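Notes from hallway chat w/ T.B., transcribed later so I don't forget. T.B. wanted the structure written out for a chain they're using in a teaching module, and asked if we could keep both sequence and structure tokens in one place. Agreed to drop them here.
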Amino acid sequence: MKEEIKVYRTKEGTIFEVIFLILAIVVWGLIIWFVKQAPDIVPTHFDASGSPNAWGSAVRISIPCAIITIVGISMMILCYFPKCFNLAEKHKTPRNYALSIRMLRIFGLFMLLLALVIAWTSLRSTSHSPIPIISIIVIMVIIAIYTSIATHRN
């Protein structure tokens, strides 16, 4: 029987959490400022070419940003519950848990950046380009693939 993995507070974890907190304050300060500066009606959805195809209140943009932020907070909290990680029995090693925890923390930070990009493209940008959102998602996929490969390496 394998011993149960426990997650303790580490210097790396504390650094990630402090960065997350500072970034969350900055991001939400900017989002609130963007909402206050935005006109009454703003584009709320864009088609594949970047043209707006739905319009609405500036406050409405804060809803997906809040949901994405909650997902980021959840990722930071899940780092302390290794039972939630779906690792195969042969891959349940401290190293693999450490990699998975690091990936979750990085994703938590990226969630805040994704919320900021969504607010920026709808409320501040004069033209919409899907490049910032796509680049954040591509980076997240690369990190997930790297962590998956590193976890399965023996």
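Follow-up for T.B.: Residues 27 and 105 are 17 Å apart (CA to CA). Might be a good example for the class.
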